[in-house]
Recover the amino acids of this structure.
């Protein structure tokens, strides 16, 4: 589920959550655990001076090690504020700091 909305005076929110209806199968559970590890790896790099590409690489390295790199087809993350998707983009090649 991807949800968000405006917050006065002109800011935005954005939140994504995953839910399972019923018990997930073994492969779905494995992939979810890999995504959690990738998220923790990315979060461990975050600071005010970290380039977006560094954080993206940390997450994508975990996915690549588990054979899931090809399944992750969008940027790792983005800033949020006046626009829902704004700089700094957490994506390969972005040298802007978080």
């Amino acid at each position: 589920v991807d949800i968000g909305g405006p917050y006065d005076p002109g800011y935005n929110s954005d939140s994504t959550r995953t839910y399972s209806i019923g018990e997930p199968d073994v492969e779905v559970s494995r992939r979810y655990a890999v995504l959690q590890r990738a998220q923790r790896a990315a979060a461990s790099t975050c600071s005010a001076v970290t380039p977006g590409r560094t954080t993206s690489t940390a997450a994508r390295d975990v996915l690549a090690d588990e054979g899931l790199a090809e399944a992750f087809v969008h940027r790792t993350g983005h800033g949020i504020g006046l626009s829902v998707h704004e700089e700094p983009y957490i994506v390969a090649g972005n040298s802007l700091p978080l």
